[in-house]
UniProtKB/TrEMBL annotation:
Gene3D superfamilies reported in the protein's UniProt record: 1.10.287.3610
Natural source organism: Winogradskyella endarachnes
Cofactor binding: number and manner: Mn(2+), Zn(2+), Cd(2+) and Co(2+) support activity to lesser extents.
Designated name of the protein: Diacylglycerol kinase family protein
Keyword entries, A-Z: ATP-binding, Cell membrane, Kinase, Lipid biosynthesis, Lipid metabolism, Magnesium, Membrane, Metal-binding, Nucleotide-binding, Phospholipid biosynthesis, Phospholipid metabolism, Transferase, Transmembrane, Transmembrane helix
Predominant cellular place of this UniProt entry's protein: membrane
GO molecular function, one term: kinase activity
Length: 122
């Protein structure tokens, strides 16, 4: 019983730390702010064009992937700046690759948005 409570308390604490991390991202990262704005716009567009259940799912999956990738990219940037604050070719490469991962997700998100919304204009 004691062990189970400790496990639960630890899980709750982890959720608290994760929530704190999410707030830090929203408060400090310009890209996350932009993505949140895009999320609001796309949600309004979803209601306006009355998109289907599967279109809502595709839209939110892509929003989730892009924003999570952005969060991981920020974490990589923090690690890189912490372990090597000075200029280094390898740090540049590491940051570029992490940013590239966000870029891939963003391109797919734009393609999915095109698949959902372009037919509504044609
Ligand atoms: N210490 C470094 N050494 C070498 N190149 C670096 C270094 N820091 C940044 N760069 C280069 O500058 C680019 C931008 O890095 P920066 O840390 O400013 O990210 P950012 O543009 O602020 O990203 P985000 O908008 O996602 O926060 C990197 O992708 C890399 O090419």
């Amino acid at each position: 019983m004691q062990k189970k409570e400790t496990f639960l308390v630890n899980r709750l604490k982890s959720v608290g730390f994760a929530f704190k991390g999410m707030l830090i991202l929203i408060r400090t990262e310009a890209s996350i702010k932009v993505q949140l704005f895009i999320t609001i716009v796309m949600t309004c567009a979803g209601f306006y064009f009355d998109i289907s259940k599967s279109e809502w799912m595709a839209q939110f999956i892509m929003i989730g992937i892009v924003m999570s990738m952005e969060g991981m990219n920020t974490a990589v940037e923090y690690i890189a700046d912490f372990i090597h604050p000075e200029y280094h070719k390898k740090i540049g490469l590491i940051k570029d690759v992490a940013a590239g991962a966000v870029f891939i997700a963003s391109i797919i998100a734009i393609i999915i948005a095109g698949i959902i919304y372009l037919p509504k204009f044609l």
